[in-house]
Structures are given as structure tokens and as C-alpha cells.
Design goal:
Length: 276
């Protein structure tokens, strides 16, 4: 509680966006999208235990993102340093060519970063969060900090909505529906349920959440998955996301916001107090 508000702070768009509990849905959307990059997906498939510990992986990813956004400067910097060290040890093999490559190659880190932050701000907005075009651009610009923490040169990362759209146009020819992407999508759609909840309504609820995440994907991404890009798909998914956001906002704060967020709010409250 030293008053360090981290890289962003209460006046940032990042704090507003990431206060939205609906970002759990955005994280799922990002995973569906990220799987469509063959090299990124092979890197995950060859280095990750996501099938054995899916909820642990999601928890660690969520903790990392929360630390970068709401942690102190030292906490966020340390988290980025640990992640870079983990990635630096990982290698994968392109099954098409036999080429061995680093999973922290800039083009792969950039893909993961862009799909993540684009999923966060797009999902929040389509679920009903009030964000102007200028605020969306500000969010992307703020998140250059997150890009630098994973090892990217911020000058090479899209920092506005227009730049993100142009980036997607550039990268789309290299995207594909691989066997690993199909397996990942199937796993995301029907993961093992914890606490013996597999044969309960929780499973049906998860199907609905996964379907909403897929419906929020860009139409070109849905087409790569072989799904129909009907004009009603996006609006229907947005309506479902709005309903889910309203339900989540009705829950007690402790149920939807973790300790990293609460500590940040305490630091912000202390920092706003006048000095005696």
C-alpha cells in the first residue's frame, strides 16, 4: 500500500476495461482466435499442458493480466520478466518444414498480444460497456506497455483500432484451420468440468458461453473454423454478451473481482487522500 498505482492508474481506459467481469468471455474469444495461427498453436501444443490443467492455465493467465493492469510497477515488471524467461526456453517444430523456432519470436508474441487486447476491448464494447472510438484507441496505446513487458518493441505493435484492423488484414493469409486448432477449439468448447459438474446444467451453460465467444469472433475467423458467417451471428452473440454482463454485474464484487484488483482500488483510494 505504498501508493504505487502501476503503469496505468484510475484515470486510464485500461482500468475501466479490465474492471469488466465480462472479460472472462473475452479471454475465451482470444483463445479461439489465437489457435488459428499455425505457428502460435504448434508452440502451445508442443509446450503447454493445457489439456491436463486447463483451469490452472487460465488462472495463471488471468493473474498475469491482472498484475500487469492493476499491480504495482514492480509487480508488473517482475511478472513480465518471469514470463519472458519462461518463453525464452521454449522451442517448437513446424511440422510442415521441420524448422525449429522460438515461441517468443516477435511475430508470435505480436499475434498473441493483438488478439488478446482486441478481444478484451471488443468484447467489453459489444457487451455494453460505454467506450468511444477515441477511448478504444487510447486503450490500444496504453496496452503498448503490456506488449513491451512480454518482450516486444512497442513501435512494432498496433496502437489504434485502425492499426489493429490493418494488422489483421496483413496476417490473415498466414492463418489456417490446422488439426491442432480444431483440437483446441473442441477442447475449449467441451473442457472437462471441475468438481464433477460434467453431467449438470453447468455443462449446458458452458456450451452457451463458448458459443457466445465464437459468435463474437470476426466473420473471417468463423469462416476459417468452417462456421457460417450469417448476418445474425454477431448481433445474437452481442445480445448474449450483454445479458451475461448484466448478470455478472449483479453479483457481489468479491465474486467477480480478485484480490489484485481490490488492492489496486485500496492504493488508489489512499493516493487520492489529501496529505495532512
Amino acid at each position: 500500500m505504498d501508493g504505487d498505482l502501476g503503469f496505468f492508474g484510475p484515470t486510464s481506459v485500461s482500468w475501466r476495461v479490465h474492471a469488466e467481469p465480462i472479460l472472462a468471455l473475452a479471454g475465451l474469444r482470444a483463445l479461439y482466435l489465437q489457435a488459428l495461427h499455425p505457428r502460435a498453436m504448434w508452440g502451445v501444443a508442443q509446450n503447454s499442458r493445457y489439456r491436463e490443467d486447463p483451469y490452472g492455465r487460465l488462472f495463471r493467465t488471468g493473474t498475469y493480466v491482472a498484475t500487469v493492469v492493476y499491480g504495482s510497477t514492480a509487480e508488473a515488471t517482475a511478472a513480465g520478466r518471469r514470463l519472458r524467461a519462461i518463453h525464452a526456453r521454449m522451442r517448437a517444430v513446424d511440422p510442415r518444414t521441420g524448422e525449429r523456432y522460438r515461441v517468443d519470436a516477435p511475430e508470435l508474441l505480436r499475434w498473441v498480444h493483438v488478439t488478446e487486447v482486441e478481444s478484451f476491448v471488443t468484447t467489453a464494447r459489444r457487451a455494453g460497456a460505454s467506450l468511444t472510438g477515441e477511448e478504444v484507441d487510447a486503450y490500444y496505446t496504453e496496452q503498448l506497455v503490456a506488449a513491451s513487458l512480454v518482450g516486444l518493441d512497442p513501435a512494432t505493435v498496433p496502437s489504434t483500432a485502425a492499426e489493429v484492423a490493418a494488422y489483421y488484414d496483413d496476417v490473415r493469409p498466414s492463418l489456417a484451420m490446422t488439426k491442432e486448432a480444431a483440437e483446441s477449439a473442441l477442447f475449449l468448447s467441451a473442457p472437462p468440468m471441475p468438481y464433477r459438474l460434467g453431467l449438470t446444467p453447468v455443462r449446458l451453460a458452458w456450451f452457451g458461453i463458448a458459443g457466445t465467444a465464437v459468435g463474437l469472433l470476426p466473420s473471417w475467423a468463423r469462416r476459417l473454423y468452417g462456421l457460417p458467417g450469417l448476418p445474425t451471428t454477431g448481433p445474437t452473440a452481442a445480445l448474449s454478451a450483454r445479458t451475461l454482463r448484466m448478470a455478472l454485474r449483479a453479483l457481489p464484487e468479491k465474486a467477480v473481482r480478485g484480490p489484485i484488483y481490490r488492492r489496486a482500488m485500496q492504493r488508489a483510494a489512499l493516493a487520492s487522500q489529501p496529505v495532512a
